[in-house]
Design goal:
It is a single chain. By secondary structure, the protein is an alpha/beta fold. The chain has a single domain, classed as Spore Coat Polysaccharide Biosynthesis Protein SpsA, Chain A. The protein has eight helices and nine strands. The strands form two sheets. Strands 3-2-1-4-7-5-8 form a seven-stranded mixed beta sheet, sandwiched between helices. The chain has a two-stranded parallel ribbon with strand order 6-9. Helix 7 packs parallel to helix 8. The radius of gyration is 17 Å and the shape is globular.
Length: about 240
Amino acid sequence: MGERALVVIPTYNEAGNLSSLVPQVLSQDARLEILVVDDKSPDGTGQLADALAAKEPRLHVLHREAKLGLGTAYITGFKWALGRGYDYVFEMDADFSHDPAHLKDFLKAVVQADLVLGSRYLNGRVTVVNWPMGRLLLSYCANIYARWITGLRIWDLTGGFKCFRRHVLEAIDLERVRSNGYAFQIEMSVRAWRKGFTLREIPIVFVDRTEGQSKMNQGIVREAVWMVPRLRLMAWFGRI
């Protein structure tokens, strides 16, 4: 059997995007499959995913009982992928902020890295479209803060477009991952780095969603603020 790659896509109220997203993702490479992890979306995203999966064998769906958060959705997807022998596992948003065309770039880059991160700020160059200035500054400054505290010299630690080799996920104790919002992205990269894996950034263009609503809220920001120094302390005490 050849190499297999799984794109894990958490969803909550993404019915307006899913029908277009699935074929665009799958058309990028024959090795790609999709796992939708739906948090009981009231707009029927889960039922739509089931209908699409009935016609597309490369699409799989997991249903969760409530809105349980981004981090736990990815952990659920990672475990599903590891149990079924996938070689590469992607994180990707459902709202087209992550362009499916970049998936080819990840598959090329992961040949020479253990974890590939899509960067909106590589070498200080901002490639974000349609974000209000306040949110852009918050994101950019959050990455400066995360780099400074953790010591991990990655330009975009909060980005959510990633590709893991399976051995990275196997080496990380997924049960001990505590972050659930955007801090989850920082924590997973820090844990991979502390395990000695090779991280590489590639440039992506990030375009703000045109369908549905953003999941950003004050709780997610607060979690990121306190989780970053906690990760530094955990590293000092050998807990990562």
